[in-house]
Amino acid sequence: MDKTVEKLKALAKLQYVDSKLDKIVTLRGSLPDEVDELEFEIQGLEQKIAKIGEDIKEIEGEIGKRKAGIKDFNAQIRKYEEQLNTVKNNREYEALTKEIEFANLEILTSEKKIKQFEDQIALRQGLMEETQNQINDRSLDLNAKRQELEDIVRETETEEKRLRGLSSDAEGHVEERILQAYRKIRRNMRNGLAVVATDREACGGCFAIVPPQTQLEIRQKKKLLICENCGRMIVDQSFFLEFEQEVSEKAKA
Predict the structure, then answer these.
(1) 124-159 burial string, b = 16+ CB within 10 Å, else e?
(2) Would you say 203 and 227 are in contact if contact means Cβ atoms under 8 Å apart?
(3) CATH code assigned at 73
(4) What pLDDT, on the 0 to 100 scale, is given for residue 73?
(5) Residue 227 class from Cβ within 10 Å (0-12 exposed, 13-18 middle, 19+ buried)?
(6) Residue 86 DSSP code
(7) Is residue 10 part of a domain?
(8) Is 203 part of any domain?
(9) What phi and psi, each to the nearest 5 degrees, are found at residue 2?
(10) How far apart are CA 244 and CA 19, in angstroms?
């Protein structure tokens, strides 16, 4: 076989195999991205719960300080009340009475603050429960999508492995500069088609009419031709038909 024909055939085969791989990726659809997004969302929710837990601990610490303060003020009140029994004049009596009033006021303030802290904890516990419910819901979705993705991967992994081997083999028969151009064109095309055949005298990629002289050169298989409209590489249809026939025969065997 002529070397040019071999190279064109290898290029067409590379596109044929890569298109088959594209179909497998399409079969998986957006599942990989959805799995990643759910994992990221769950991670964020778990961090949110951890932060709420830290806030609750901090508030509980403040409650502990307030309760300790109340205990100290109660001790002071008892001491001042005992001292009232030994006062010698009205001045001492009034001073002790003010201290007792101040201590009682501080106790009331602390009790009010404790109630506010307890309300804050209740709100955060409610938020934590709500967030945990969100995690549970997202986890169910994640497990379902993971299972669906695993099922698809399991069903296609053998074929994908085979196709990737064929793709790698075909790449080895394509010149590096052409291979780089092929990859660049594939990245720029939504359907991943960098190599196409003519379809009813038109480019199989953009469907622009191919000049008769160019069509003749394509059929002669003597050189690689480029679509003047879309920049795709155009090869003879017989290459793709040959690959289709090979696949069909293997399927029947």
Answers:
(1) beeebeebeeebeebeeebeebeeebeebeeebeee
(2) yes
(3) 1.10.287.1490
(4) 95
(5) buried
(6) T
(7) no
(8) no
(9) -55, 140
(10) 12
Position 225 scores a pLDDT of 94
Spatial CB neighbours of 38, under 8 Å, sequence gap ≥ 6:
138, 141, 142, 145
Note whether residue 17 is domain-resident: no
Task: Look at residues 200, 208, 205 and name the one whose alpha carbon lies nearest to residue 233.
Answer: 205
The amino acid occupying position 14 is L
pLDDT of the chain along its 253 residues, tens only? 568 888 899 999 999 999 999 999 888 888 999 999 999 999 999 999 999 999 999 999 999 999 999 999 999 999 999 999 888 889 999 999 999 999 999 999 999 999 999 999 999 999 999 999 999 999 999 999 999 999 998 989 888 998 999 899 999 999 999 999 999 999 999 899 999 999 889 999 999 999 999 999 999 998 999 999 999 999 999 999 988 887 666 655 5
User: In the chain, where does DSSP find H-type helix?
Assistant: 3-28, 31-84, 90-171, 176-188, 212-220, 237-252
Domain count, the chain: 1
What are the φ and ψ backbone dihedral angles of 196, each rounded to 5 degrees? -135, 165
Q: How far is CA 218 from CA 89, 178, 215, in A?
A: 121, 17, 5
pLDDT in tens, 87-105: 888 999 999 999 999 999 9
What tokens does 213 get?
A: 């002289």
| 134 falls within a domain | yes
Whether 105 and 73 have beta carbons less than 8 Å apart is answered as no
Q: How far is CA 124 from CA 1, 44, 136, in A?
A: 76, 17, 18
Cα(127)–Cα(121) distance, integer angstroms = 10
Full residue range of the structural domain in which residue 41 is found: 28-156
